[in-house]
Amino acid sequence: MEKIRALAKTVSNWGRWGADDERGTVNFITPAVVRRAAACVRRGDVFSLGLSFGADGPQIGQGGRVNPLHLMSAVGGGYGPDPEGFRYNDDVVVMPLQCATQWDSLAHVYYAGQLYNGFPATTTTAAGAGRNAIDKLAAGIVSRGVLLDIARALGVDRLPGGHAITPAQLEAAERAQGVHVDSGDVLLVRTGHITVFTRDQDREGFMRRMPGLGMAAVPWLHAREVAAVATDTSAVEVIPFEDPSAPLPVHLLCIRDMGLTLGEMFDLEALAADCARDGVWEFLFSAPPLKVAGGVGSPLNPLAVK
Amino acid sequence: MEKIRALAKTVSNWGRWGADDERGTVNFITPAVVRRAAACVRRGDVFSLGLSFGADGPQIGQGGRVNPLHLMSAVGGGYGPDPEGFRYNDDVVVMPLQCATQWDSLAHVYYAGQLYNGFPATTTTAAGAGRNAIDKLAAGIVSRGVLLDIARALGVDRLPGGHAITPAQLEAAERAQGVHVDSGDVLLVRTGHITVFTRDQDREGFMRRMPGLGMAAVPWLHAREVAAVATDTSAVEVIPFEDPSAPLPVHLLCIRDMGLTLGEMFDLEALAADCARDGVWEFLFSAPPLKVAGGVGSPLNPLAVK
Amino acid sequence: MEKIRALAKTVSNWGRWGADDERGTVNFITPAVVRRAAACVRRGDVFSLGLSFGADGPQIGQGGRVNPLHLMSAVGGGYGPDPEGFRYNDDVVVMPLQCATQWDSLAHVYYAGQLYNGFPATTTTAAGAGRNAIDKLAAGIVSRGVLLDIARALGVDRLPGGHAITPAQLEAAERAQGVHVDSGDVLLVRTGHITVFTRDQDREGFMRRMPGLGMAAVPWLHAREVAAVATDTSAVEVIPFEDPSAPLPVHLLCIRDMGLTLGEMFDLEALAADCARDGVWEFLFSAPPLKVAGGVGSPLNPLAVK
Amino acid sequence: MEKIRALAKTVSNWGRWGADDERGTVNFITPAVVRRAAACVRRGDVFSLGLSFGADGPQIGQGGRVNPLHLMSAVGGGYGPDPEGFRYNDDVVVMPLQCATQWDSLAHVYYAGQLYNGFPATTTTAAGAGRNAIDKLAAGIVSRGVLLDIARALGVDRLPGGHAITPAQLEAAERAQGVHVDSGDVLLVRTGHITVFTRDQDREGFMRRMPGLGMAAVPWLHAREVAAVATDTSAVEVIPFEDPSAPLPVHLLCIRDMGLTLGEMFDLEALAADCARDGVWEFLFSAPPLKVAGGVGSPLNPLAVK
Fold first, then answer.
1. Per-residue pLDDT for A80 more than 80?
2. Burial bucket for residue D35 (CB in 10 Å: 0-12, 13-18, 19+)
3. Is B71 within 8 Å of D75 when comparing Cβ atoms?
């Protein structure tokens, strides 16, 4: 944890947007950024980056996370006098808020008893997150999205489990793609790893080892002032961890110290293929979280509009 | 039902986009419409139109619909060797997909044994919707949004329960606001009724009686080729029904015959106030449904960007 | 709380069955008691004392407690090649473990940071009850049951809300009925209050005010060494509380200090009528809790066999 | 299905207890049987035959069946003015009613469009079972239990997957144990297979192949007039099926034609060991189902009292 604590000092955003702030780096999304985002819509094509929510999802039971249960509460339910008249179907879902494509809220992880911006960890109880809940990000997250395809930049179909992405690799992708990540952007990092699940149907392989951001990428994200970062893996960061004694350092530094929301299990395959075709790696990005009261995450269907 | 069947013939879109189409009027959202939508972003201000999902939601138990149960599956869960190290919170939600702000899918209602585009109603089983499920609308719904504030046009704070909105009233609002609903637009209709819940906390009053679209508005929606229509009530249409023997005619005609998705319980108050201030009633509208496999609806946090 | 703490000293069973005990007064149910219970079966008639679990249950949302959601996961699901062959229905329930007829576990309530037998309250986390969970009572609860019908003894159809049952009233009922509560018995106390729900369908009236045991009954329960006590109300004890500044004193003293499990919302009407007819107020009582791992309660269908 | 239909004619109980009967063979449990059951209590020792309900349960996702989700809705929730005063824990369970130790209701399986006693299969909808629901067995199931230990009778620790138990094997066990299954008894059949799960933790091995009753045992159960039959496997009957083209014949014949409730995943290990020690294979058996309104099954904690 010493290395994490040292890094934390250099990337902390506590107090940057006031003592009561619960939105963190989403504050970088200014109206000017939103206008820049809208200007990225050139063709009018829309890409859905979300996985399906259902029994066939990626979960393998780790930490009690299961795939969604989707159940019908009415099938052909009637209403009114006419047997040939009104009929309806209704349904119910039971799901972990972290079960597939999702945002982590700033109440999701912490250390040393404090959440982002110094709120006590005890503000989260069985009744939900009293601070930094996901509904604090309600009027978002819409911004310019930039996709960096690290697998493509390194000339592979997908990065192997355990590959730690470095700032140099991020910048090499920027140069190769002719794009620059600026303040307020949502950064999408493609590793190709999601195909271990979507194509190979290997849930264990998808969930237990993965490529992802290394610790060195954290100061880079801080310097670039990204509003949020998402990848096509379940953890954003590399697993196995670079230092086995300090699990999930990127989570801790991004969420707790920087106030940077992480997006997980985004399916970037079709979008990346399209960007490779037309050479345009920026787009309008829209991924509003559900306003779950006290939620520490939200399931998502993120959209990219080119 | 005779009147409904007669109207159905004049507004049906079955086959319009092919025999296999499951997207209905969302097909009106062409790339050109999306570009027109993006061009509506002038200031870069974002409005969240969603209600909170939680125990304090609007449901009163009708038809088995309950408010969401939000439960923590981990509070301060540990991982790794360091007691001052990584800690996490996780959560689970149990909710009807129709419990608050939501899209109805085209599998939600029907009559005479057939869903939109002629699919048999039997394609929906306890396993979910085999046709017209909500995930068919995944790469959407992003379009130009137009808000028509009928309460404002009629000079009232909110329309009373039982008020049936007519085409004449929709067009009067268009004229008063200087806006025109065109093909592919998402139409948001403000009645002010949501304040019965959000301000007065009168759930029974909110859910049991409401203003809304009358049957005569259906051909108007058809003629204008709207992609989707949403209101600030739980039913979009007027309750009590205009003809007590034919419940929910607007649902049947829009969803089953036109293939027009309905959006319910959108909170339009802040957006309407802003539009009244600046006189601009159009915006980029983004409300991607969750890709619930086989789902007949989706909870939402719709965004309007001006 | 001072009065409660004073009483606690006189009724505490901490350490009585060893420092590791998690079963409390259920320990009074010795093999000899079970044999005495079996000997109560004279006619062979069985009475179900449980409420139904479903949307029509008694809950009104207090403390997040809702009525069960019962959902079908399969209706007419097929298996095998023959269309006229095997078909099945399956279902799922979502329910608070305290939503209708139920046992409280000894992890349900506490004060001053300690559960029954001195276990720290922190043994219960979002992962469940680490100590005193309901599955510790798995090989039970089967014993002799004794029904004391206080409403009948006082000559009323049902006791009014706010009526605090005293030891004198319990003993008067014993004398009137010709029965004596002994060590290891499960005591069922009828107030008649459940008919506010089951007959009058007045959920608010049933849940917000009720007759029940007063604080003075606690030492009496201790002296008689009852194994468990259940009533036909949602709280066992009287509401409003005898001392408004000390809520739910009977819960605290019975569960936390005595290790005495409480049974709630038992429907005693048919059993009481039968006992009044034949003058026999004892029976074999069987109410095994579900072995919910880490559960702090269990839904029940208790049986009385006469 | 022809063989099943032929057997069905010889074992059908349709109409035996009237055209409206929804209880089937539980009707064999007369008051005299209950008295005989109570007389089996000689020592006063109680055995719990239920598995735990929790994330560590036996389910592997077949047919959408998952293990229970147990979630805390309150941990240390406060009430009242005193910080050292009343605190409570509450919880919620989400579970298939068929996820571990359970009764099947008589609405669980069927063929040819009819349930037990000729009720149309269409009486079960997304709203639950309109006929033959589990709550019809509320005042039960308490009877004499008889354990036949087939593994022991055949001199093995446990029967292998695919072993079909025959009437001759059931009768050999009766003779070896000195017990006789009579009208109204609940028959428990031990195969030892549950240890594949409980000891070996091999869920796949437990759920995919198993010993169990063969089709020839069905007429024997009919002749003996057993009230219910339960085993220590998930299907009661042998898997793989004796005739691959006719899946689950014992389910169909017992539940649909005989009206005989099946009990699944009973843990009989400790009880069988005790019976082997004292040579007594009969006991008071008590396993009341939860009264789930419209339920097609019920989770259980069955008790045997010797």
1. no
2. middle
3. no
Q: What is the spatial distance between Cα A73 and Cα A91, in angstroms, rounded to a whole number?
A: 5
Sequence-distant (≥ 6) Cβ neighbours of residue D102 within 8 angstroms = D263, D264, D265, D297, D298, D299, D300
β-pair partners for C109: D88
- CA C71 vs CA A11, B209, C295, D10: distances in Å: 48, 28, 22, 35
Cα–Cα–Cα angle for A166, A167, A171, rounded to 5 degrees:
120
Contacts of D10 (CB under 8 A, 6+ apart): D219, D222
Partner-chain contact B90 A294, CB within 8 Å = no
Q: Per the structure block, which two tokens stand in for B172?
A: 């009067």
Select from B55, B74, B125 the Cβ nearest to the Cβ of C126.
B74
Per-residue pLDDT band for A29 (boundaries 50, 70, 90) equals very high
* Residue C300 backbone phi and psi in degrees, to 5: -145, 155
Angle between helices B2-11 and B217-224 (to 10 degrees): 10
| Residue of chain C whose Cα is closest to the Cα of A90 | C71
* Phi, psi for residue C88 in degrees, rounded to 5: -145, 155
Q: CA of B100, closest CA in chain A: separation in Å?
A: 10
Kindly state the helix (H) or strand (E) to which residue A150 belongs, with its residue range.
Answer: helix A150-153
What pLDDT is recorded for position A253?
98
Q: Which residues of A touch D64 (CB under 8 A)?
A: 55, 69
Nearest Cα neighbor of B259 from B237, B231, B228 is B228
Pairing of strands D186-190, D228-231: parallel
Distance CA D28, CA D26 (A): 5
Interface size, chain B vs chain C, as Cβ–Cβ contacts under 8 Å: 32
Residue A170 has which token pair? 């991020």
Of D69, D74, D126, the CB nearest to A72: D126
pLDDT at D209 over 80: yes
Number of Cβ atoms within 10 Å of the Cβ of D276: 14
Q: Evaluate whether A154 touches A193 at the Cβ level (below 8 Å).
A: no
pLDDT at B140: 80
**pTM of the predicted model as reported, rounded to 2 decimal places:** 0.96
> In angstroms, rounded to a whole number, what is the distance separating the alpha carbons of residues D194 and B192?
61
Q: Which of B69, B74, B76 sits opposite C66 (nearest CB)?
A: B69
Cα separation of C303 and D139, whole Å? 7
Q: Residue B205 class from Cβ within 10 Å (0-12 exposed, 13-18 middle, 19+ buried)? A: middle
Pairing between β-strand B212-213 and β-strand B261-264 as defined by DSSP bridges: unpaired
Closest CA to A271 of A173, A188, A170: A188
Q: Please tell me which residue of chain D has the smallest CA distance to C110.
A: D87
Dist CA C217 CA C220 (whole Å): 5
Tokens of D63: 């047919």
Shortest distance, CA A164 to any CA of chain B (angstroms): 20
Query: Six-digit token pair at A63?
Result: 């930490």
In the block, which residue shows the tokens 């009579």? D182
Write down the ipTM of this complex. Answer: 0.97
Q: Buried b / exposed e across A240-249, counting CB within 10 Å, b at 16+?
A: ebbeeebbbb
* Candidates D69, D90, D134, D265, partner chain C, best to mutate (most C CBs within 10 A): D90
Whose CA is closest to D126, among B56, A91, C188, A290?
Answer: A91
Within chain A, strands assigned E span 46-48, 69-78, 87-96, 102-104, 109-110, 124-125, 128-129, 142-149, 164-165, 186-190, 212-213, 228-231, 261-264, 282-286, 297-299, 303-305
How far apart are alpha carbons A78 and A89 in whole angstroms? 9
CA distance B212 to B201: 20
Q: Which of C53, C126, C288 sits opposite D303 (nearest CB)?
A: C288
Identify the pLDDT of residue A83: 82
Round the CA-based radius of gyration of chain C to a whole number and report it.
20
Candidates D102, D104, D50; CA nearest to D269 is D50
